[in-house]
């Protein structure tokens, strides 16, 4: 059984006395605006679980301040339970007298980065940028007082032959392919649209333009420009985007669908998805995967008409403090 729980500051991460394993590797490079604390469960100096803790500057949730547990790894459910329990107690002590707050996880500091637990899975293979975890992660959270507070899903559908009518577009809007040669400018335009389209999402926090570029530039090798569509007005204002990635196995992963607020409800999102589906059929793709949608998002309602769930995810939370 685990014998020790260390609560460290972020500056203490390069500890030479901790042995890391394949199940619990050493700390990754910390994100900008990184965590305030690190937690490690040890057994005779070997790490059995670890996480980072963000407790300042996070978004509020249901009217309360928040703290996040992220960069999570564990070798077994007992170590995970001890880790989560220890972090909750540490935060209670650190913020005594400050009132209640939500402790949420797993969430790597921002919903722009990796978060969520896979809680229900089917035969569909994992896809790029999808969270993955052992089956017992959900039990580890629930056994330590956490509950599911937000639900998400991915859906999949076979690619149908291209027999549909041409999509219709709102007046004054046309579509074009993603310009891979102008990657920086394209990402800047998508950034502007994304921060508008996703601002109302649960736990949304801003991200810098530079950080957004760093996230997306490495995946250029997985992009087919004709399958990442940009909708824009006659004066080149980007008002819609569907961003997809090649999985390399006959599947096309539809990662992001965003539409400008003023054009919502006019069918632009549905038309973008339909056009990508037609193009995927012409290129010989066999499967479309609609990735990582919040259950309440418009994209979920659009996709739910034609695709079946292939994975479900959850964000866990519990209220701590007095």
What does this structure look like?
The protein is of the alpha+beta class and 322 residues long. It folds into two domains: 4-151 and 315-320, Aminopeptidase; 173-285, 3-Layer(aba) Sandwich (Aminopeptidase), CATH 3.40.630.30. 21% of the residues lie in helices and 32% in strands. The chain has helices at residues 77-94, 137-142, 183-197, 209-216, 268-282, 298-303; strands at residues 4-9, 37-43, 46-54, 66-74, 101-105, 117-121, 147-158, 173-177, 229-233, 238-246, 251-259, 287-294, 308-320. Strands 1, 2, 3, 4, 5, 6, 7, 8, 9, 10, 11, 12 and 13 form a 13-stranded mixed β-sheet that branches. Strand 4, helix 1 and strand 5 (101-105) form a beta-alpha-beta unit. Helix 3 crosses helix 4.
Overview features:
2 domains; Aminopeptidase; elongated; alpha+beta; single chain; about 325 residues; 13-stranded mixed sheet
Runs with pLDDT <50, length 5+? none
What fraction of the residues are assigned to beta strands by DSSP? Answer: 25-35%
Average of the residue pLDDT scores:
91
Taking the sheet with the most strands, its summary is: 13 strands, mixed
Global Rg: 21 Å
Give the ordered list of helices and strands. Answer: EEEEHEEHEEHHEEEHEHE
- How many domain units? 2
Assign the CATH architecture of the largest domain: 3-Layer(aba) Sandwich
User: How many strands?
Assistant: 13
Count of DSSP H/I helices: 6
Tell me the helix content: 10-25%
What's the CATH C level of the largest domain? Alpha Beta
């Amino acid at each position: 059984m685990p014998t020790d729980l260390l609560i460290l500051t972020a500056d203490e991460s390069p500890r030479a006395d901790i042995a890391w394993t394949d199940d619990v590797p050493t700390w990754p490079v910390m994100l900008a605006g990184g965590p305030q604390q690190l937690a490690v469960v040890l057994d005779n100096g070997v790490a059995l679980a670890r996480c980072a803790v963000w407790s300042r500057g996070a978004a509020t949730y249901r009217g309360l301040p928040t703290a996040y547990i992220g960069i999570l790894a564990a070798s077994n459910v007992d170590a995970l339970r001890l880790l989560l329990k220890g972090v909750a107690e540490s935060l209670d002590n650190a913020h005594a007298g400050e009132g209640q707050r939500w402790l949420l996880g797993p969430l790597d500091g921002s919903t722009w980065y990796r978060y969520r637990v896979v809680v229900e899975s089917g035969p569909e293979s994992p896809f790029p940028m999808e969270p993955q975890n052992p089956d017992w992660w959900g039990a580890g959270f629930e056994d330590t007082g956490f509950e599911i507070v937000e639900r998400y899903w991915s859906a999949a559908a076979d690619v149908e032959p291209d027999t549909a009518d041409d999509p219709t577009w709102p007046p004054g809007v046309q579509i074009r392919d993603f310009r891979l040669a102008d990657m920086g400018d394209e990402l800047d335009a998508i950034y502007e649209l994304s921060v508008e389209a996703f601002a109302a999402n649960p736990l949304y926090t801003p991200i810098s333009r530079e950080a957004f570029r760093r996230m997306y530039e490495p995946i250029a090798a997985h992009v087919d420009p004709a399958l990442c569509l940009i909708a824009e007005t006659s004066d080149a204002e980007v008002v819609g985007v569907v961003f997809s990635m090649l999985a390399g196995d006959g599947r096309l992963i539809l990662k992001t669908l965003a539409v400008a607020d003023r054009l919502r409800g006019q069918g632009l999102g549905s038309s973008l998805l339909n056009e990508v589906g037609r193009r995927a059929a012409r290129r010989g793709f066999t499967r479309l995967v609609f990735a990582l949608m919040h259950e309440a998002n418009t994209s979920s309602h659009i996709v739910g008409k034609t695709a079946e769930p292939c994975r479900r995810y959850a964000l866990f939370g519990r209220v701590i403090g007095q």
